[in-house]
Amino acid sequence: MKFSPTLNPNDPVDRQPTIGIIGMGAMGRMYANLLSKAGWKKIHVCDQPSKYENLKTDYANCPGVKVLQDGHAVARSADFMMYSVEAEFIARVVAEYGPSTKLNAIVAGQTSVKAPEKEAFEKYLPSDAVIVSCHSLHGPTVSPLGQPLVLINHRGSDESLRLVENIFRSFGSRYVYLSYEEHDLVTANTQAVTHAAFLSMGTAWASSSSYPWEHGLYVGGMETVKVNLTLRIYSNAWHVYAGLAILNPKAREQINQYAKSTTELFKLMLEAGTAKNGNGSMGNDKGSEKKLRERVEWAREVVFGPNQTRKPILLSEAVLDKFSLGRVPTAGESPNLCTYRPNSHLSLLAMVDCWAKLDINPFHHLDLAATPLFRLFLGVAQHLFLSPDLLDRAIHSAIHDIWHRSDDLEFVVAARGWSQCVKFGSFEVYRKRFEETRSFFESRFEEVGALGSEMIKAVMASEMKEH
Length: 467
Description:
Domain Prephenate/arogenate dehydrogenase: 17-300
Catalytic activity: prephenate + NADP(+) = 3-(4-hydroxyphenyl)pyruvate + CO2 + NADPH
Strand order of the largest sheet: 3-2-1-4-5-6-7-8
Protein name: Prephenate dehydrogenase [NADP(+)]
InterPro entries: 6-PGluconate_DH-like_C_sf, 6PGDH_NADP-bd, NAD(P)-bd_dom_sf, Preph/Arog_dehydrog, Prephen_DH, Prephenate_DH_fun
Order of helices and strands: EHEHEHEHEHEEHEHHHHHHHHHHHHH
Structural class: alpha/beta
Strand content: 5-15%
Oligomer: single chain
Number of strands: 8
EC number: 1.3.1.13
Largest sheet: 8 strands, mixed
Number of helices: 19
Helix content: 55-70%
Shape: elongated
């Protein structure tokens, strides 16, 4: 049937489309819950057959949501249907349920990597099926309000696109219109290196068997963002990040360069800090220090030079400190309680160096379709690189301080390990590596979950006010 161009959830039930969701993981549930809350009356969902009874119980009292036995039942009934499954399995799932697609139905995929989805849809969907895909660029615990929601009109009319827009309008998201190919480039540029940095930080801390904020080593301001977001990533499911890293060629390239940048910068730090003086004694080598400074300043100019007039992304350090897991001692307290010391910020130096090496302008995609994680980490890098004092203290610490050198070494090893894992293309190795680190932080997820969410809300609210 034809649907009104002004379609909304208040229309009579017989005038509403049947919305189908195959795959009720965290994102599938987020979509089902938001659509139910908006007032849509015919939402058909399913998951793996083994989860059918539990899913029925979970949604027994959720208005408008009907749990069906399998994907065939959803596909046969849905006017608009979304596959919310992992990119690794999209071809297998579409091959099984695609032939049951309702005549002239609109089909979408909520996958983080679109190349496998596009291939699966074109291969297994009926020729009459309309393809208008989507991807919410945020996690299931983040409010969709104001966040980018990518829409891909691959094989559909303007009327089909408007129907999808109307269905999702209640989310309050900001629509971003891309092709499949543009989507994968944008997500690589906004997520690959950020994820690699946070994954490497977590693995490094786990390998050191240390919660650094408890010892006062990484607290306050920028460190608050790094710690909170690292734990936030590990509190999610591993496959959320694996698909993007392994299946997106651009992401693989960037993760490899991030590991190279991390390694090369660390070597320069060691050369500058442990070179022999002319008399044979150990001491700082000015030539090596100059090489390190020149490389960092080159990266700063490439990435931030054309963007120095932009407003800062982050809130003030005083505001960020409210979300810290550790704290800096106040006047009168023992400095041993929780002492902040400058460090190399190797994760940030390597991220900007990586962007510079690959000639990526992160601000271009910030305006287009940035995730909250990317926005915050870019904000931290901007804060460091556009403050001459902070950047100088980081370089000085990288060369002269040895207290964090073992942590930096663990970080280099972790970054190279993640790069090799992605290069091998093994989802199983990725899962084992992720879950091993995850288990180290698991007891802290409840503590950091609410705090991290509030921090993201505060920063995003500040951004919305400015724009």
